[in-house]
Design brief:
Layout lengths: L2 H10 L4 E17 L2 E19 L2 E7 L5 H15 L14 E5 L11 H16 L4 E19 L4 E19 L2 E12 L10 H12 L3 E2 L3 E7 L1 H12 L5 H5 L20 E3 L22 E5 L2 E2 L6 H7 L7 E2 L8 E2 L3 E4 L6 H6 L3 E6 L3 E5 L4 E5 L2 E6 L2 E7 L2 E5 H7 E4 L4 E9 L2 E9 L2 E9 L2
Helix pairs in contact: 1-2, 3-4
């Protein structure tokens, strides 16, 4: 059975809406720990997923070949009818899209021998372990080529071919019973040219070693400057998830009912944009076949938009924004961010520092916790500096920030023009997708820090 016939069959079986996603992937994953390859895989897959909608209920079926497609369609429709018992009907006034998109790579990763990729990882590991006081190294390389065709019963028919490459280093230093760590990565949409010549392990190792001689950060509320990495993670984790359409529909966000209201200072604008060329979270069409677009989530402090899928857009009476994404063929698309960042301002980092009598400059991000429903967050930064009389005076470690998301946005009084992006993987409901966080340096009038 061809996929066009599968759409017809799904409707004949009673579905209100049907969608077919044919997906082929080629991928490599390498992880080297302390100079030893601990994970090495390379493979390809071709799968077809079927989604059916019946009176508000969704069903998902998967086929590994066209021969299995008929059964997958019937499974999807059957499950949709079953789940409809607990759902309300959905308005199907959805737009349709047609088109093709392909990322051009200078050096396609899928054409490069695995041994060459291992050598790239080994070189990074050697650079880090040559540095005195480095105790442990964890280097990761991954690439994936993903080709999809998505069609649905409303007329959407899109083809997309995207390759992504990422190299990351997590380095641990140790001295006199003290262990510190640092993380650095590089990645994007394209080929091996993205990571060749990079020095992620060396940069992370240097910062990890520097942290050994740093002083613990003082606890309390201080004026603060966040570097692009930490500010980018903050806006993604603490704010971005709260602006995802499913969180709004399910009343699990601090942003419910706040459209058009002020949620931050007038120097704060937040954008989600899958169309930025080369970034790790970029794409032309989402996993429902909706064309992506640049959109303001916050414009000069005013909440201006949510990120939506077809279903959440319908329930919120909005246009779909192209933010329905799926980890793979076996998972349904859900609302996800892409490249989410704070828009550049007009300050320089040096102006921010010199304008402060005292405070803390926090940089990097190691881990954290957020609650989009309550608007609470906690992030462990990689490190920091104590600011005194407009200068960076003392290197700090054990730097953690905590607070309420909207309080921080209202207290931002300066945004720099040095916008930078950082690649990563975002997890939600068991699905991991490539994203990009981003921000310039951001100054906050008051932020709560916790040291040891």
């Amino acid at each position: 059975m061809d996929i066009e016939g599968a759409i017809t069959l799904a409707i004949d079986e009673g579905a209100d809406f049907a969608e077919i996603r044919r997906e082929r992937t080629e991928s490599t994953m390498i992880r080297m720990i302390n100079g030893v390859v601990r994970e090495l895989s390379r493979g390809s897959e071709l799968r077809i997923s079927v989604r059916a909608l019946y009176k508000g209920g969704w069903g998902l079926g998967v086929a590994s070949s066209p021969d299995e497609l008929k059964d997958a369609v019937k499974d999807a429709v059957k499950l949709a009818k079953l789940s409809s018992k607990w759902n309300e009907p959905i308005d199907l006034e959805w737009p349709s899209f047609k088109g093709k998109y392909e990322v051009k790579a200078q050096k396609p990763a899928w054409e490069v021998n695995t041994s060459e990729k291992i050598e790239l990882v080994r070189e990074q590991d050697n650079r880090a372990r040559r540095m005195d006081k480095v105790r442990n190294t964890n280097i990761m390389f991954g690439d994936v080529l993903r080709e999809t065709r998505i069609i649905n019963s409303l007329g959407t028919d899109v083809n997309q071919k995207i390759s992504r490459v990422r190299l990351a280093a997590y380095i641990f230093s140790h001295e006199a019973g003290l262990t510190e760590s640092a993380f650095e990565s590089r990645g994007g949409v394209g080929g091996m040219e993205i990571v060749e010549g990079s020095n992620v392990a060396e940069l992370a190792a240097k910062r990890a070693v520097e942290a050994l001689s740093a002083k613990p950060a003082p606890p309390g509320a201080f004026p603060a400057i966040l570097d692009p990495k930490l500010a980018g993670v903050f806006i993604h984790e603490a704010f971005g998830h709260a602006a995802e359409g499913d969180a709004i529909v399910n009343d699990q966000s601090i942003l419910v009912g706040k459209m058009g209201e002020r949620v931050g200072s007038d120097v704060v604008s937040v954008i989600d944009d899958p169309t930025v060329e080369g970034l790790y979270g970029s794409y032309r069409y989402d996993d429902e076949g909706t064309e992506s677009k640049r959109k303001y989530i916050v414009k000069e402090g005013i909440l201006s938009g949510y990120m939506t899928s077809l279903e959440t857009a319908s329930k919120l009476k909005m246009e779909p924004t192209g933010n329905a994404r799926s980890m793979d063929y076996g998972n349904p698309p859900i609302v996800r961010m892409s490249n989410t960042f704070i828009e550049a301002g007009d300050w320089s980092f040096e102006e921010m520092i010199s304008d402060m009598r005292s405070g803390i400059y926090a940089f990097g991000s190691l881990y954290g916790y957020t609650d989009p429903a309550k608007g609470q967050f906690m992030f462990k930064a990689e490190g920091g500096w104590l600011i005194e009389k407009g200068e960076l005076k003392k290197r700090l470690r054990e730097v953690a920030i905590t607070g309420m998301t909207l309080d921080v946005l209202h207290n931002i009084d300066a945004v720099a023009r040095d916008l930078a992006h950082d690649p990563g993987m975002c997890g939600k409901l068991g699905q991991w997708v490539p994203v990009t966080t981003g921000a310039p340096h951001v100054r906050v009038k008051k932020l709560v820090f916790g040291g040891r």
